[in-house]
Amino acid sequence: MTELKETLRAEALRHRAMLDPRDENPEGAADIFFEALSPRPELVVATYWPKDKEFDPYPILERLLKQGNTCCLPLVQKESRELKFAPWAEGDPLEKGPYGVMQPKVTDDTVFAEPGLLIVPLLAFDRRGYRLGYGGGYYDATLRALRQRKTIIAVGVAYARQACLFNLPADEHDEKLDFVITPDAAHDFRG
């Protein structure tokens, strides 16, 4: 199954490279996100800083910060594969982390957060709520660990054209998403 996932991953990257983000509506995705999820201001939300042509969750992040949510960004932990999350607010410094991912600059005083809602990047998603990521397993390990400790909501954000019409291959370690939000719709996989 690993070989099939690698083939699909390469195709998903090729497909995404051909998308023009200007054809999408990130503000519309933010409207759909807030309508579908109605996140309370006390909810800690983890999101990500987009790399290359990943769907940009910034309009969602901006509105979360305005309504008073604590927002955080991931820090890659290569040893454990479980992401850590550092609080981030507008204007806080970012630095390049592993794999070229932008992450908050941490100090000895940084207090890490444990989110109740995670906004997750993806290359493709299917109608069951499985996502195709980059193959590192960081989000799967993180979702699994968080779900063992508490109730969380995992939300993928994507371009509408990243939806697959077929089921993606899913291994035992793959974690399902609860929702995927696109500029066109909220896909709810909790049922």
Just give the CATH class. Answer: Alpha Beta
* Rounded radius of gyration (Å): 16 Å
Instruction: Work out the strand percent.
Output: 15-25%
- Per the CATH scheme, the topology name is Rossmann fold
Q: If helices are DSSP runs of H or I spanning 4 or more residues, what is the number of helices?
A: 4
CATH homolog superfamily: NagB/RpiA/CoA transferase-like
Order of helices and strands: HHEHEEEEEEEHEEE
Dominant shape? globular
Low-pLDDT runs of 5+ residues are none
What would you call the structural class? alpha/beta
Number of DSSP strands? 11
Strand order of the largest sheet: 3-2-1-6-9-10-11
Number of spatially distinct domains: 1
User: Under the CATH scheme, which architecture would be assigned?
Assistant: 3-Layer(aba) Sandwich
> Mind describing the biggest β-sheet?
7 strands, mixed
Range of helix content: 25-40%
Which whole number gives the mean pLDDT?
A: 93
**Cα distance spanning the termini:** 26 Å
List keywords for this structure.
191 residues, alpha/beta, Rossmann fold, seven-stranded mixed β-sheet, two-stranded antiparallel ribbon, 11 strands, 26% helix
Structural features, described:
- With 191 residues, the protein is α/β, with parallel strands linked by helices.
- The protein has a single domain (2-188), classed as NagB/RpiA/CoA transferase-like (Rossmann fold).
- Helix content is 26%, strand content 20%.
- A seven-stranded mixed β-sheet has the order 3-2-1-6-9-10-11, sandwiched between helices. The chain has a two-stranded antiparallel sheet with strand order 4-5.
- Strand 2 (70-75) and strand 3 form a beta hairpin.
- Helix 2 crosses helix 3.
- The radius of gyration is 16 Å and the shape is globular.
- The relative contact order is 0.19.
